[in-house]
Design brief:
With 354 residues, this protein is of the alpha/beta class. It is built from 9 helices and 13 strands. The protein has a single domain, classed as Zn peptidases (Aminopeptidase, 3-Layer(aba) Sandwich), CATH 3.40.630.10. The strands form 3 sheets. Strands 1-6-8-7-10-13-11-12 form an 8-stranded mixed beta sheet, sandwiched between helices. Helix 5 links the parallel strand 7 and strand 8. Helix 2 runs antiparallel to helix 9, helix 3 crosses helix 5 and helix 6 packs parallel to helix 8. It binds zinc ion (ZN).
């Protein structure tokens, strides 16, 4: 004979299992009010995608990449090799990135741009000693590494995530905050989205900005000459980087140049609040297009912004030998990755913000 006590325990256990599974099956139920844009189906799709993907961010994975790119490889440049290695340190970084992306199921492609290392002007302040290359400086072939999730309904409209993977070519800096961390942030997004089926093509571009000319110019021009449009380009450079006074604060600045970019900056702010990411989020206007997002604006794609930890850039180790991976705020970088993920999913679901 079964005792009522045992039945009660069984029923209670079943109820517990159901309660545990409900948020797994219906993750949207725990989200706040829908975004103002879109119908309820779109809102649910967006909420489900963000919730299921954003919880898979992994600071350990980002940290391993960061230490490989800025410690195992102490530099990522075309004019210096790790002693005893045949390839330049940037070519080694490229191989590693291709290996990661291939492991995630992408088929990464490379293009080619002729570049030189920057020269060095010792009369300038230490952080700003890059200068035009000397006349006889050798030329190298630099490549962007490009991987994408093809869009189902709008394959010619690109949502671009870009990060420069090289370190400073005129000084022996590991370039951890500038920009191994942005590279690992973009790579983390590629990981999170590796099985996502977007409506618009999501293109990841790992470029070079510490050699000259910048290879993001090639990437943007190639999109233009292929007759494609850039729905938005989000540059990750120095994510989570801030001054020692700001230590402990989780910061992100969205830097924009155009009115379209300002709309993207405002979108970042809304998404940070909507998802309670708790980043200290702000926006910053630059007079002129700059950095790798600027290459898109210059190519005629005004929907381009930069996500960065501080603006003006407040890292005391900027462009110095002391820009080492132990100084990276990985938790802050992870939050910026989640915010950028939200923006990508928003743009793919609802299109550009009003
Ligand atoms: Zn940088």
């Amino acid at each position: 004979m079964k005792t009522p006590g045992r039945n009660f325990i069984k029923a209670f256990a079943k109820l517990l299992i159901v309660l545990i599974l409900i948020p797994e099956i219906f993750p949207v139920t725990t989200l706040a009010q829908p975004l103002q844009t879109g119908d309820s189906k779109q809102n649910k799709k967006y909420a489900y995608s963000f919730k299921s993907l954003s919880r898979k961010t992994d600071t350990d994975r980002m940290q391993r990449g960061l230490f490989y790119l800025s410690q195992s490889l102490p530099r990522r440049v075309l004019n210096w090799s790790v002693p005893g290695h045949n390839l330049s340190s940037l070519e080694e970084a490229d191989l590693w990135l291709i290996q990661q992306l291939t492991g995630y199921g992408y088929q990464p492609e490379k293009d080619a741009t002729q570049v030189r290392a920057f020269g060095r002007d010792l009369t300038k302040p230490l952080a700003h000693q890059y200068a035009a290359p000397p006349e006889d400086a050798p030329w190298f072939t630099a490549c962007n590494i490009i991987a994408e999730r093809p869009g189902k309904t709008n394959p010619d409209d690109l949502i671009v995530v870009i990060a420069h993977k090289d370190s400073q070519s005129w000084i022996a800096s590991p370039g951890a905050n500038d920009n191994a961390i942005g590279t690992c942030g973009a790579l983390e997004l590629a990981y999170l989205l590796r099985r996502f089926k977007p409506d618009h093509t999501i293109r990841f571009i790992f470029c070079n900005e510490e050699h000259t000319p910048w290879t993001s110019v090639t990437a943007a021009e190639n999109i233009k000459s292929a007759g494609k449009d850039v729905l938005a380009a989000i540059n990750l450079d120095g994510i989570g980087v801030k001054s020692p006074q700001q230590a402990g604060h989780l910061t992100n600045v969205t830097r924009f140049t155009t009115p379209e970019g300002e709309k993207l900056a405002d979108l970042m702010d809304r998404l940070n609040t909507f998802h309670s990411l708790k980043l200290v989020q702000s926006k910053y206007r630059s007079e002129h297009p700059g950095d790798d997002d600027g290459s898109f604006i210059n190519a005629g794609f005004p929907w381009a912004v930069l996500n960065i930890g501080s603006m003006p850039y407040a890292d005391p180790n900027y462009h110095l030998e002391t820009d080492t991976p132990d100084k990276v705020d990985i938790k802050n970088a992870e939050l910026t990755v989640r915010l950028t993920l939200a923006a990508i999913l928003y743009l793919d679901t609802f299109g550009r913000p009003d």
